[in-house]
UniProtKB/TrEMBL annotation:
<protein>
    <submittedName>
        <fullName>Zf-CCHC domain-containing protein/UBN2 domain-containing protein</fullName>
    </submittedName>
</protein>
<feature type="compositionally biased region" description="Acidic residues">
    <location>
        <begin position="70"/>
        <end position="79"/>
    </location>
</feature>
<dbReference type="GO" id="GO:0003676">
    <property type="term" value="F:nucleic acid binding"/>
</dbReference>
<dbReference type="InterPro" id="IPR001878">
    <property type="entry name" value="Znf_CCHC"/>
</dbReference>
<feature type="domain" description="CCHC-type">
    <location>
        <begin position="122"/>
        <end position="137"/>
    </location>
</feature>
<dbReference type="GO" id="GO:0008270">
    <property type="term" value="F:zinc ion binding"/>
</dbReference>
<keyword id="KW-0479">Metal-binding</keyword>
<feature type="coiled-coil region">
    <location>
        <begin position="169"/>
        <end position="233"/>
    </location>
</feature>
<keyword id="KW-0175">Coiled coil</keyword>
<feature type="region of interest" description="Disordered">
    <location>
        <begin position="45"/>
        <end position="79"/>
    </location>
</feature>
<dbReference type="InterPro" id="IPR036875">
    <property type="entry name" value="Znf_CCHC_sf"/>
</dbReference>
<keyword id="KW-0862">Zinc</keyword>
<dbReference type="Pfam" id="PF00098">
    <property type="entry name" value="zf-CCHC"/>
</dbReference>
<keyword id="KW-0863">Zinc-finger</keyword>
Length: 238
């Protein structure tokens, strides 16, 4: 029975069979001892295979990380080149618009002023250089609103016998205020320098967001690999 069992073992067990035949006397070897030795050898082989599989997965993860890092660096270079190209094209476009009536921002050519303008952006008129509370447009709107309220209050308090001429004059004044407000908004153009600052600002923001997306994507890939490795280990333990 012992010899039959040894002959039925697969080729991968040949070294173990040879070792048993050399170390043991098959004529007196108990079947229980043989099975115990074979089971011990099988567990040892399984552990070796598991270790080799883990090592392969570790190498795969390292290779993937290296590849992702290289791809990320290449993508960053490409993104920077694209943003630089877009910025150059936009500057050329604005320069051509400036030749045909656009207004140049003289302060833009001064580095110190440009730095200050870039730090502060008004949320009312979207212009750099001041906060919303100090915005000239907002102050002018407040003045016009107060004038309108004063005119309306005057109407309410005025005698019903007021002449039609006085009423028409008051209506004309309010209409003039509204026209001035609309004209102020229409003439509130963004200058060349301000547009360039906005383009550079948002280009930098886009580049930063792209890097963050790539970092999160790489982290997600690593988590997927770790999940697969854990699932395989659980299957082995079962």
């Amino acid at each position: 029975m012992v010899r039959k069992i040894l002959r039925c073992l697969p080729r991968t067990w040949v070294p173990k069979v040879t070792a048993i035949e050399e170390a043991k006397n098959l004529n007196i070897l108990a079947l229980e001892d043989l099975l115990g030795s074979l089971m011990t050898h099988e567990l040892s082989m399984q552990k070796t295979n598991d270790d080799e599989e883990k090592e392969k997965k570790k190498k795969k993860i390292v290779t993937l990380k290296s590849s992702q890092t290289e791809d990320s660096e290449d993508d960053d270079d490409n993104d920077n080149e694209e943003l630089a190209f877009i910025t150059r094209r936009f500057k050329k476009f604005l320069a051509s618009k400036k030749k045909f009536g656009g207004r140049a921002n003289k302060k833009f050519h001064q580095k110190g002023e440009a730095s200050k303008l870039e730090e502060i952006i008004c949320f009312e008129c979207n212009k750099p250089g001041h906060y919303k509370s100090d915005c000239p447009r907002l102050k002018k709107k407040d003045i016009l609103k107060k004038k309108k309220k004063a005119m309306i209050a005057t109407w309410d308090d005025s005698d019903e016998s007021s002449s039609e001429e006085d009423t028409n004059e008051e209506v004309a004044q309010i209409a003039l205020m509204a026209l001035e407000e609309e004209e102020e908004e229409e003439n509130d153009e963004v200058t060349y320098g301000e547009l360039v600052l906005l383009v550079e600002k948002y280009s930098s923001m886009i580049a930063s967001l792209k890097k963050k997306v790539k970092s999160l994507t790489n982290e997600n890939d690593e988590l997927i690999l770790a999940k697969e490795e854990t699932s395989n280990e659980i299957e082995v333990l079962r």
